[in-house]
Each structure stands twice: as structure tokens, then as C-alpha cells.
Design goal:
It contains ten helices and two strands. It has about 240 residues and is an all-alpha fold. It is globular, with a radius of gyration of 18 Å. The two termini are about 35 Å apart.
């Protein structure tokens, strides 16, 4: 994450923008949402947290590791510790792959539960929510990794990877405070708004990566209201998760 281009084994001289604290601030916000979203729901289990299957714990650790790694990488860039930053950046590939693998098996486990539902959607329709999350996460992570020599794009794409996979944590946080389901996209749009607002202040325009992330978010929303309700998606969900 946040890697910089190297010429003759020496990093290019960074501008002040490369060390801006905004991304550390956003990493802390996203991590706090994840912790506040998952910890109360886990601790509220009647038989305790350890009554959950091992898969849940593994996925939870991988999930929080992603946000912890992003925040740590932003901190290292802020402190100009670029050597360690680059070394840790390679580990983001393993964490991303683990996110996808454990995420898929969590979806299979959820699909096996007859009562599983997201926002009062049908069993099959609900599966499109985490499916689009994983797809969008994959798109921006790959782009972020490919753009690691371009700090402006790289750091935004890695932040967007976190925002686009944050849906489960936001949903649990909203449930914990008792707010309506509609507040989930409002919170997420607020995170996009912070990024684009920051672009306007620093760059005088939205960065292309920020607009891409917002476009992927709206595309996923459109699919949730259209494709999710069709028999075709029901057949796909049965094939993928049944």
C-alpha cells in the first residue's frame, strides 16, 4: 500500500502531499467503524464469542487486519518510513486474497442459514450485497497495486478498497445504534464525500480514482435494486453459494 516509484534503488523525492495526514485520519475512522460494528454484535452472542464457528473468527481477523494495515501504512508514509512501508505493502496482496477467500466462505455459510436476509430482501437477493462488495474491492485493490508508483492514485484506491468493503461493518454499526437501514448508504456516501471534498481542497478537482470508487458504489446500488430481484440472479446465487 502507498508504495512509491524507485529509481536506482532510491525513492523519488516526495512532496508534502505524499505525507498528508488525511489518509491516516481516514484509516482511523474506517478501523473504528469496523471495531464498533463487529465487537458489540460478537460480544452479545448468548453463548459468548467463542461459540461462533472458527471461520467467523478467521474472517474477522483478516477483515480487521486489512484496515489495520491501511492505517499503519498511512502512518509510515506520514513518518516517512518508506522502506518499511514498501516491505509491508507486499503483504497487502496476501491480506486481500485472504479477504476474498474467507469472504466467499462466509457468504456460503450465510446462504445456508434459512433466516439470512439483508434489509428484508429475499434470501438470494441478499447475496448480491456481499458479492458486489467483493467485486468492487477486487477492482480497486488491483488498480491500487498496479498504480503503486503513482502516490495520488495509489493511496486513494487503497482507501476506496476499504470503503467499498465496509458495508457489513456499517450495517452492524447501524443495527447497534438502532438507526434505520437507509442510514447504511448515507454513512458510506459520507466517507466518499470526505474523500472527494479532500480532493477539491488539495487538487482543486476530484481525482479520477475517487470518481471511479463512487461510480462503483452507485453501480452496486443499482444492481441491488434490479438484478438482485430477478430469477436469473437467484439461479446464479444457488450455483455460487448453494
Amino acid at each position: 500500500m502507498f508504495e512509491g516509484k524507485i529509481i536506482n534503488s532510491q525513492p523519488i523525492k516526495r512532496s508534502k502531499a505524499a505525507c498528508e495526514p488525511f489518509f491516516l485520519f481516514m484509516g482511523a475512522i474506517l478501523t473504528a467503524i469496523v471495531l464498533f460494528g463487529f465487537i458489540p454484535s460478537v460480544l452479545s452472542k448468548p453463548n459468548g464469542a467463542f461459540s461462533l464457528p472458527l471461520l467467523y473468527h478467521v474472517h474477522g481477523m483478516v477483515f480487521i487486519s486489512w484496515f489495520g494495515l491501511f492505517t499503519l501504512q498511512a502512518y509510515l508514509v506520514r513518518g516517512r518510513n518508506l522502506r518499511l512501508h514498501r516491505r509491508l505493502g507486499q503483504s497487502s496482496v496476501g491480506v486481500a486474497i485472504a479477504m476474498l477467500i474467507t469472504g466467499y466462505f462466509m457468504m456460503r455459510a450465510a446462504y445456508a442459514l434459512p433466516a439470512f436476509s439483508i434489509g428484508n430482501n429475499s434470501h438470494a437477493a441478499s447475496m448480491l450485497f456481499p458479492t458486489t462488495d467483493l467485486i468492487n474491492f477486487s477492482i480497486v485493490f488491483v488498480l491500487g497495486f498496479l498504480n503503486r508508483a503513482k502516490p495520488l492514485a495509489h493511496k486513494r484506491l487503497m482507501l476506496l478498497a476499504g470503503i467499498l468493503i465496509l458495508d457489513p461493518a456499517v450495517a452492524r454499526m447501524i443495527g447497534t445504534i438502532g438507526a434505520p437501514f437507509a442510514f447504511i448508504p448515507i454513512v458510506e456516501l459520507g466517507l466518499f464525500g470526505l474523500l472527494i471534498g479532500y480532493d477539491l481542497v488539495r487538487l482543486k478537482r476530484p481525482h479520477w480514482s475517487s470518481l471511479l470508487g463512487l461510480s462503483l458504489f452507485f453501480a452496486a446500488m443499482a444492481l441491488k435494486f434490479t438484478l438482485a430481484q430477478t430469477p436469473a440472479w437467484s439461479d446464479i446465487a444457488n450455483m455460487l453459494f448453494g
